[in-house]
Amino acid sequence: MRERQTLDESISGVRSLTAAVEDNTGLIELGEEEGDESVVSEAEAALKALRDEVAARQVETLLSGEADGNDAYLEVHAGAGGTESQDWAQMLLRMYTRWAERRGMKVEVLELHDGEEAGIKSATLLVKGRNAYGWLKTESGVHRLVRISPFDSNARRHTSFSSAWVYPVIDETIEIDIPDSEVRIDTYRASGAGGQHVNTTDSAVRITHIPTNIVVQCQKERSQHKNRATAWDMLRARLYEHELKKREDAASATEAAKTDIGWGHQIRSYVLQPYQLVKDLRTGVESTSPQDVLDGALDPFMEASLSQRVHGDAPEVEDLA
């Protein structure tokens, strides 16, 4: 039903655009024949207004991967650097939450480990919405922040690294067999808010897939049974995403980037001082308003990365900055 709805919307959208172009083109011809400049101007303005809708639908055509329409899991991990990186990880978590809210998507926190002094060590979000994975999949990688540290009494400039990794939620039609011998299951006490019960019982669950060293964890529910079920869903999704990555030429580079959250592996830099600039190192897309980006204005970066994946190129920087 979801696929049918998507196809119906795509077909009706193209038909609507085609009809609008034909109608306004006809009005221009009629206005020119009758010498009515007002009709010509009105029709030309209508055609220009269609550009934004056409551009939006062009981007939608880039979301054609087999799992692009699915919900997504988003993991954020702080890199080396202690409090600095943990604070940056929390900023990234907020950025993606804001982005999802702007698009009318729902966000659930499945796991969150607070930092010692500030920020977070890691967190896992479930992002629910149309094409959630299709949009977010280009955000996997290391993100670099340059700023005057709020934790440094000497107000020195610091560079911090955190990573984001995205994988799709898979439905029941996709069967993934995971032998018990290939996993290790650990339980532990959840951290953070949640009341006495959550913090005094081993309700949180961590599952490690030994052959791939993929680790998932969930502490959302008070029930260990529910957390275990969610963790198994997350593991199946991670293994599915792992298989998808194998089909891409960039798989080796992506896996190499996961080995080190630091210099030489970042996909995007966010500079707050001494100047203000966010630059995607894969596509060259830039923004001179980091605060807007950190508030969720990520679409230009995502669109350029999607275009690069599909066509091997990216839209002009001037069109998106």
TrEMBL record:
<dbReference type="InterPro" id="IPR005139">
    <property type="entry name" value="PCRF"/>
</dbReference>
<keyword id="KW-0963">Cytoplasm</keyword>
<feature type="domain" description="Prokaryotic-type class I peptide chain release factors">
    <location>
        <begin position="189"/>
        <end position="205"/>
    </location>
</feature>
<keyword id="KW-0488">Methylation</keyword>
<protein>
    <recommendedName>
        <fullName>Peptide chain release factor 2</fullName>
    </recommendedName>
</protein>
<dbReference type="InterPro" id="IPR004374">
    <property type="entry name" value="PrfB"/>
</dbReference>
<dbReference type="InterPro" id="IPR000352">
    <property type="entry name" value="Pep_chain_release_fac_I"/>
</dbReference>
<dbReference type="InterPro" id="IPR045853">
    <property type="entry name" value="Pep_chain_release_fac_I_sf"/>
</dbReference>
<comment type="function">
    <text>Peptide chain release factor 2 directs the termination of translation in response to the peptide chain termination codons UGA and UAA.</text>
</comment>
<dbReference type="Pfam" id="PF03462">
    <property type="entry name" value="PCRF"/>
</dbReference>
<dbReference type="Pfam" id="PF00472">
    <property type="entry name" value="RF-1"/>
</dbReference>
<keyword id="KW-0648">Protein biosynthesis</keyword>
<feature type="modified residue" description="N5-methylglutamine">
    <location>
        <position position="196"/>
    </location>
</feature>
<dbReference type="GO" id="GO:0005737">
    <property type="term" value="C:cytoplasm"/>
</dbReference>
<comment type="similarity">
    <text>Belongs to the prokaryotic/mitochondrial release factor family.</text>
</comment>
<dbReference type="GO" id="GO:0016149">
    <property type="term" value="F:translation release factor activity, codon specific"/>
</dbReference>
